Amino acid sequence: MSQDDTLIEATEAVVAENFVEVSYDDAIPNNVNLSSDRQLLRALEGWHPGYIDWWKDMGPEGFQEADVYLRTAVGVDPAGWAKFGYVKMPDYRWGILLAPAVPGRTIPHGRHKGEPAWQEVPGEYRSLLKRLIVIQADTEPASVEQQRWLGATAPSLYDLRNLFQVNVEEGRHLWAMVYLLVKYFGKDGREEAQALLERRSGHQDNPRILGAFNEKTPDWLSFFMFTYFTDRDGKMQLAALAESGFDPLSRSCRFMLTEEAHHLFVGETGVGRTVQATVEAMVKAGITDPYDTAAIRRLGVVDLPLLQRKANFHMSVTRDLFGSEISSNAAESFNAGLKGRYHEAQLQDDHQLQDATYPVQRVVQGELVWEDVPALRAINSRLLDDYIADCQGGLDRWNKVIEKAGLHFRFSQPHKGFNRRIGEFAGHRITPAGEVVGEETWAALKDEFLPNAEDIAFIQSLMRPCHQPGQYASWIAPPRMGINQQPVDYEYVKIA
Length: 496
Ligand SMILES: [Fe+2]
Ligand SMILES: [Fe+2]
Fold this sequence. Notes:
It is a single chain. By secondary structure, this protein is mostly helical. It has a single domain, classed as Ribonucleotide Reductase, subunit A, CATH 1.10.620. It contains 13 helices and seven strands. The strands form three sheets. A three-stranded antiparallel β-sheet has the order 2-1-7. The protein has a two-stranded antiparallel ribbon with strand order 3-4. It has a two-stranded antiparallel ribbon with strand order 5-6. α6 packs antiparallel against α7. The N terminus is likely disordered. It is an enzyme of class 1 (oxidoreductase).
């Protein structure tokens, strides 16, 4: 059966079973009734070839012709929104899918709280809203670019497939944001959509907007850490934008969150399986000291302290993505009703925060102190705190794996101010334990906190492809289950 047949069948099945109206009649699968808006459809069809060129240039290197066992979003019903099948990535059906409208939805927060949610762009906030959408949009292609070289060193076909799944879905997230830009922002929106295809992660003259998205993702440990920690920033940002009073943005982000969950799963299980392989090898070799690095590395697995350093790096650069802890821009986005807090509706306050305060940690005269600041100005700080709390679950589960093996080592999150370049802690040297130190001490200890040259060389030495079905690299345990109930030795990618 051709891919199109599979998709048509899938669409019919989904429409029949779940009554979700997804149109695959147009070149662009959608549930936003694109065919009724010829002008918008033409604008998107005009953008499509540039997108495909970008995907071919900057998407997964060397695997564009491979048949990949992918999940395609074919609807938004939680009971059956995806279809699995082999697809060549450039033929993936990137769709525009919005979560269902909530009838009578009102603006959840800020000065317009309680007014009907906007179905069109509120003129007074046009440029602020556009900026929020562009910043979110820019992260989506950026991560695809960062990860484009990883296929060559995949530790298994299962992992290779997961990488590509994440990549095509980040591509779809770009579509989701471009739809908003093109539909609601006219000529400016079309220009922004074009610029999204032109910026490049790490490019000297035309880089991606946010720092962490210009870092390299040079190896698979970085990929798993990225999908656990940095995609989780994505989750938090999407959750905050899902609270937007601009309803199309809210609905778009709500559906993106369902896909994001898989990216977080890839990260958490990727690191977890790495930990699993390490502790199994240590136990088998009778090594009990997690700091017996040389002996552990000889087993072809990653020592736990190195994983901690790697996590430290990814946590700190990702925390920078939340922006300055104290921010008048964030206050205005909240006040204007454009971007809420995490789980806004569940919070027990007035959702306007005119008189509320929020405790923010800062460095004053070389000391860490807590200060109550107006809650409105501390919106970013609060989202960062929620993010840090949300990160902890994975660390706890990784620690369980170590504990079960009878070994003594615990992963922990470094202090919020560790290795920061943006916000309150920028310009200060703070250890993972939360000690403010001088430049000299930092220089002496840095290699214990962050991946050092030896670590990086060792990780590189492990990055050898395992491209046979059922084969897994020494440093990572096979998953407990395959994708979509397929076995773990399934041929998830048919390499052309
Ligand atoms: Fe995304
Ligand atoms: Fe993601």
